[in-house]
Amino acid sequence: MKNQLLFLITVLFLLTSCADSKNQEKDKRQPNFIVFIADDAAWNDCGPYGNQAIKTPNINKLAEDGLVFDNAFLTASSCSPSRGSILTGRYPHSAGTQELHMPFPEEQILFPGELQKAGYYTAIAGKYHPGPWRAEFDSIYRYSGEPSGCKQWVKAIQERPKDKPFFLWLASIDPHRDYEPNIIPEPHNPEDVIVPPYLPDTDSIRKDLGLYYDEISRMDSYLGKVMEELKKQGVEDNTLVIYMADNGSPFPRSKTRLYDSGIKTPFIVRWPGVTTKARTRSLVSSIDIAPTFCELAGANIPESFQGVSFTPILYDNSVKTRDHIIGEHNWHDYQAHERAIRNHKFLYIRNAFPELSASPSADVVRSITYQEMIKLDKAGKLNEKQQDCFVKPRRAEELYDVINDPYQFNNLAEDQEYKEALTEMSRLLDTWIKETDDKIPANPTPDKFDRWSGIRFNKS
Fold this sequence. Notes:
Elements: H1 2-28, E1 32-38, H2 57-65, E2 67-69, E3 72-73, H3 79-88, H4 92-95, H5 111-117, E4 121-126, E5 139-142, H6 153-158, E6 166-171, H7 203-233, E7 239-245, H8 260-263, E8 268-270, E9 278-280, E10 284-285, H9 289-297, H10 311-315, E11 325-329, E12 338-342, E13 346-351, H11 362-365, H12 368-378, E14 397-401, H13 419-435
Parallel strand pairs: 1-6, 1-7, 2-9, 3-10, 4-5, 4-6
Antiparallel strand pairs: 2-8, 7-8, 11-12, 12-13, 13-14
Helix pairs in contact: 5-9
């Protein structure tokens, strides 16, 4: 009996040792990375963030298997500054990509290059935007004018070398303007859309929002195809996937703005075996992706990175890795210089040019929604929450209680009850400005489009 018991204990020990060895081997494997990045999608315009009117079954599935971040933010609500910030792990002005269409300075380090040095294959499919293509991407699948920008996503993962870990930057054009009807089999009904309180609830604006929904759903379908291909190749269990956006929706008071409607982003991380269906309130910034991926890959983490790794949050969603985030608003079609700092309680915004109105980007100005809002404003039919883009001059400072005022409508900057909070947030912003050598431009880039029509000025 003793011998039998000893034999069983020995067998169990050997089996456990083998299992531990396999788990350790799995833990040593470099994970694959995929970033799905939408173009102009609001943080709350998908199922996991409460919008059940929009068809996003594949994004919903990511959330069911992953970790949903309720407080993820971008460094800018502007296409190329935001994307450049993610890839460099630096704030837009620090990366030298602070204004729309600015290319990366040659000296800037991109984290895909650090992954390459660690043995990774890197590729981009779809929209790129910040200037000329860089050698940090081994393969580039340019979109050739197809509306979605997603058609080569699956091809990119099919053609990867199978003997290397990989990083794929899969960037859509959806839901960037302009819009067309009937682009998906079952278009959204305008009656079902959710109209945010800063927009008027009219038939034409509902129709515009419905077409925007359609583009998000189209992108979602391609995301699903990539996830199916991952499963088919047997690599989904070792692939960390992020779904996010580059800035807010292409509607007034969203894209280019520093409110949550502009710089807050959907941020869902799926990594089987690590993340499970859960949510986290921990603050993260888009510049945190670079150090996180490099850490998980065992790659070098350059000193140039200004972000903070959120790896601890993946293993424990109650962990806090930062106290606040910072956002920038620089030239994007129109002159601007704003800075924002946000924590769990307050959002503080400082505006260097308060004499200017808060015009959205030119593509938004040309939209049906904005043109209708101009007419309604002239007719005195917009409420105070809907007049934001037309106010001039604006306040040089804004302070919002983001818990009790989630849309940031009630400016508390001149409320004596919040003087201490205003002083502290202003101090923190000053510290960041000094640390990152941020400056108000002496010769700011002027408007290049008309603020009422969105038509480009003649270059002459």
